[in-house]
Amino acid sequence: MTADDIETAGAALACRALELPEFAGAATVAAYVSVGGEPGTHALREALRARGVRVLLPVLLEDDDLDWGEDEGPGRLAPARRGLLEPEGPRLGTEAVTGADVVLLPGLAVDRRGMRLGRGGGSYDRVLARLAAAGADPALVVLLYDGELLDEVPEEAHDRPVHAAVTPSGLHRFTPRPR
């Protein structure tokens, strides 16, 4: 996809995501800064911040766990390991995510059951385990391109289903399976 295609898809994703009631009522959203060809998060993050929503962004730690910082806008992002962009402000700790109403998860694909295929680093698996251990129950949402909603993706015992996937053409809700 060209940079223009990614930006256009990102704008469509933001519009679709903002249709989810979970975003409408959110005071805090844990998001991430998309890089490369990932579905764009910029437009959604900007729209949320314009609404007064506190947006948290991940900070990749040496052990691949995630600390969090507040999104203060594109001018307050710094280059980090693995080509990522991270917030420049103070670190809020790994537990900060447990206060989020919505957690936006990166993913390569999601299947019709809501199972997410990540990049394999395990950072967000740790986030999901941390949320469960804290008894936190935020909405789990993934932004995808239309072709990334699949019939089935591989899963492991520790994987958890997401509640919704947003594509440029629509919203897709899932009923998490009992485990």
UniProtKB/TrEMBL annotation:
The keyword Aminoacyl-tRNA synthetase does not apply. It is an enzyme of class 6 (ligase). Keywords: ATP-binding, Ligase, Magnesium, Metal-binding, Nucleotide-binding. Substrate binds at V33, E38. Its EC number is 6.3.3.2. GO terms for molecular function: 5-formyltetrahydrofolate cyclo-ligase activity; ATP binding; metal ion binding. Its cofactor is Mg(2+). InterPro entries: FTHF_cligase (IPR002698), FTHF_cligase-like_sf (IPR024185), NagB/RpiA_transferase-like (IPR037171). ATP binds at R116, L117, G118, R119, G120, G121, G122, S123, Y124. The keyword Ligase applies. It catalyses: (6S)-5-formyl-5,6,7,8-tetrahydrofolate + ATP = (6R)-5,10-methenyltetrahydrofolate + ADP + phosphate. NCBIfam families: MTHFS_bact. Belongs to the 5-formyltetrahydrofolate cyclo-ligase family. This is 5-formyltetrahydrofolate cyclo-ligase. It comes from Streptomyces rapamycinicus (strain ATCC 29253 / DSM 41530 / NRRL 5491 / AYB-994) (Streptomyces hygroscopicus (strain ATCC 29253)).
